[in-house]
Write a sequence for this structure.
């Protein structure tokens, strides 16, 4: 509980910090309690998973620190984030800064091919660690792109935009196929996170209001849905002491309340209309198909993303079918008890948000619209100013 509370403090600080030093200290401080949660209370390969998680994230953070120091020196020795944003840095400086930001934030998301720490960390982490890791920690990377990469290096963002967009597509497709092959339920949801977060980075780097709002909403949706799915898997693990899909088959007959919750969360993960993820993915894809002055191959990009949604239906519905019905040779599950009152109360708020966001997304979109519109307006203004400056120099 101490580790969870320290981690919560650090995460709140990361999202609220207006000082780059404070941001960086809390960004790094969050690693320690998560390392301990995995390394002490994790599964059989907990040491391997915790060290891999720590080293991957630390490797990206070193370059982030170098970028922060350069920005400090270049801005009259100020760490105040609003003063550092939207400055006219040179093209070379912006590319170097974006490279540092990208490595730090892409590892945290994680984007393909920097994702390999995630399945190990999720599989070995205790249920509470997996929920916090999936629901909030991964969003620190996408928040970093929105908060720092776009406002500080807009010229570089446009230059590398095609590469990042196609990496996002690669993550969506790869995450789907990898999840389809899994027999461990936790690993299946971990690989699905790679695919879902691919939609988030796709929405951010398409650089229009529709895409960015969809990406932010999808960040919330992923936290709700994947957090709930990890809780559901944790509840099965408490009963069977296994995460193997083969040992959890056919429990629908004996756990009707459990499979009802699981069905709704699975449909949400698939992006079923009426659930939260449908709205987020639809907005991201709508943003991708919208004509884009920075990227001409947006139709091909959107078509390439659609198989990711099909794969999500394949691996999630396969898991659901096996857990509820299984096959002709299911293990004896008659001794398993259904959810108790505490577990129902734990899952109920997640289900509330699945339908609240799915049926009334405007309630949440209104909070982000002004900020996103301001971000996109300033980004386009910065690009126009850079274009004019380039023409004058010529």
């Amino acid at each position: 509980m101490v580790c969870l509370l320290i981690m919560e403090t650090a995460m709140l600080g990361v999202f609220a910090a207006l000082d780059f030093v404070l941001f960086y200290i809390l960004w790094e401080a969050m690693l320690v309690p998560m390392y301990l949660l995995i390394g002490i209370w994790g599964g059989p390969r907990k040491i391997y998973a915790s060290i891999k998680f720590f080293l991957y994230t630390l490797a990206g953070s070193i370059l982030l620190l170098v970028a922060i120091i350069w920005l400090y020196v270049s801005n009259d020795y100020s760490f105040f984030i609003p003063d550092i944003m939207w400055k006219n840095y040179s093209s070379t400086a912006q590319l170097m800064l974006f490279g540092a930001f990208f490595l730090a934030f892409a590892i945290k998301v994680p984007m393909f091919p920097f994702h390999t720490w995630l399945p190990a960390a999720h599989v070995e982490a205790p249920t509470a660690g997996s929920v916090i890791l999936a629901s909030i920690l991964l969003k620190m990377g996408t928040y970093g792109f929105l908060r720092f990469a776009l406002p500080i290096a807009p010229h570089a963002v446009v230059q590398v935009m095609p590469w990042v967009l196609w990496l996002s597509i690669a993550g969506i497709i790869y995450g789907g196929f990898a999840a389809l092959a899994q027999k461990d339920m936790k690993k299946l949801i971990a690989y699905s996170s790679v695919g879902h977060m691919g939609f988030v980075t796709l929405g951010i780097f398409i650089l229009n209001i529709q895409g960015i709002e969809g990406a932010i909403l999808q960040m919330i949706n992923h936290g709700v849905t994947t957090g709930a799915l990890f809780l559901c898997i944790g509840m099965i693990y408490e009963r069977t002491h296994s995460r193997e899909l083969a040992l959890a088959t056919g429990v629908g007959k004996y756990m009707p309340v459990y499979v009802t919750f699981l069905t709704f969360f699975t449909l949400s993960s698939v992006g079923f209309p009426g659930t939260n993820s449908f709205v987020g993915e639809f907005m991201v894809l709508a943003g991708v198909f919208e004509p884009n002055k920075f990227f001409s191959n947006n139709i091909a990009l959107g078509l390439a993303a659609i198989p990711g949604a099909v794969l999500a239906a394949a691996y999630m519905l396969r898991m659901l079918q096996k857990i509820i019905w299984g096959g002709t040779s299911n293990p004896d599950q008659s001794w398993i008890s259904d959810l108790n009152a505490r577990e129902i109360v734990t899952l109920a708020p997640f289900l509330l948000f699945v339908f609240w966001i799915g049926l009334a997304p405007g309630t949440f979109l209104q909070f982000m619209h002004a900020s996103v519109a301001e971000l996109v307006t300033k980004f386009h203004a910065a690009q126009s100013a850079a274009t004019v400056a380039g023409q004058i120099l010529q």
Residues 209-240 form the longest helix (32 residues). The chain has 17 helices and no strands. The CA atoms of residues 32 and 155 lie 35 Å apart. Residues 1-152 form one domain.
